[in-house]
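Quick one:
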Amino acid sequence: MADHSLITYDASITLSDPTLVIGQEFPDVESCRRTLKDIAIALHFDLRIVKSDRSRFIAKCSKEGCPWRVHVAKCPGVPTFSIRTLQGEHTCEGVRNLHHQQASVGWVARSVEARIRENPQYKPKEILQDIRDQHGVAVSYMQAWRGKERSMAALHGTFEEGYRLLPAYCEQIRKTNPGSIASVFAIGQENCFQRLFISYRASIYGFINACRPLLELDRAHLKGKYLGSILCAAAIDADDALFPLAVAIVDVESDENWMWFMSELRKLLGVNTDNMPRLTILSERHKGIVEAVETHFPSACHGFCLRYVSENFRDTFKNTKLVTIFWNAVYALTAVEFESKISEMIEISQDVIPWFQHFPPQLWAVAYFEGVRYGHFMLGVTELLYNWALECHERPIVQMMEHIRHQLTTWFHDRREVCMSMTSILVPSAEKHILEAIADARCYQVLRANEVEFEIVSTERTNIVDIRTRVCSCHRWQIYGLPCAHAAAALISCGQNAHLFAEPCFTVASYRETYSQMINPIPDKSLWNEPGEGTEGGGAKADLVIHAPKIRRPPGRPRKKVLRLENFKRPKRVVQCGRCHLLGHSQKKCTMPI
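Output:
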């Protein structure tokens, strides 16, 4: 097998560097040292430092007998250094393999800094391959990893500095975005980070004044140098896009931290509105979330995310026919239709009965759920949180929150621009639904009972529509908040515009109101108060120095954890032989003689 780590040179060719000349100046001795290292790597020779102090820097080629040598000295009266003597010719053959002593972690960090600024997801494997291709130098995976870590610290600061800056950062949020909530909490005598809660005034205003009264709750685990979890409460705007209301970082996901998060959310909404709407909350309904919602939002309708329920059903039964019937049951509009589908499932497997006891239909089924979801049944915030955790896992906590703020700012700006150009009554997604309902309404016969009640007759069934209370006996109008085909037929028959009978949260006016406020920029951290100079704000005092949490990521590749749902799995079926009637094997594999 060939050795590809060797570089061959013609011994008759001498190496020289035309970029170095006598009299050339450097801002300081460190710049001089870095430049000479870069040249040594580029020309594939080893550099040996003879002398390096505040006034001079002398280096030569490490090969015995090679005359290359440079002498750099400080210029009198100024901080710069200049080359005094230079022997620029090499008579040695240079470094003959890819491993170079000058390719230190610091050199790797400088080499990749520009690329990491553009792409923070630049991987160590990509770094070492690019360095080999571009510089002809081989570095180890650990060198590449540490070089990236050092470069990230130079660009964004260290993880530890991020925690120290949190009180000042919260103070800046409150100053630049009045009415916003930004608070940080520490724990223990060492003031280790425990919790951070941020909600911008623009988001609070948009949710209370224009969004449907629906919140999604979820979390994602952080995999950076210090572990933790990111919690989020998000609403849905008029055009079905995600609208983050509040974000929190906690040292660990726990029942206590969920209780705190929901307490902060309750205070936030209580301060900003006199008439708290009855909320609908969607989550995976883990124990900590359920208890926190019951404590702080006792009147809320707290339902399951349909994705979570359906995946559990699919993994539990692994039966395609059952899953198909299950989805038909999920979207059944009436209790009669739902119970019919349940009966079909029970005929296939009696095991669905205990499953429905673990997942009561009142918490997810369209026919039974009491909350107002307006057709929004699954958590969209889950993917957003995992993206944030992935994109920011190598950034300090302040930089992570700035990344989130920048994304929110972009969303507000872009969606504000979009909605200002709209001329319709309803947003595009609702407009499409209404047009489909109007098209379907043409095949119905309409009988008017009185001023507000109509009988809608079709070949399948008859439905009753009340346009004053906005109710249809098919239940679709109430569940989705938009006129169904029956309602559209009734409204058209009496000369009404069906678009005007959609819920206000679907109008362009509400969409504009949602994004009417702005998330203001935050000054560069060089302009913030240093720890010890601030004023008291929410949570910890601004002059409190907060240290990193003690929970650090362990070294090495994380072990994969398998989520086991024994409580929801069917017990493993025990096989009984039909010949000998013993357990553990089938008749086909029975060894008893006939």
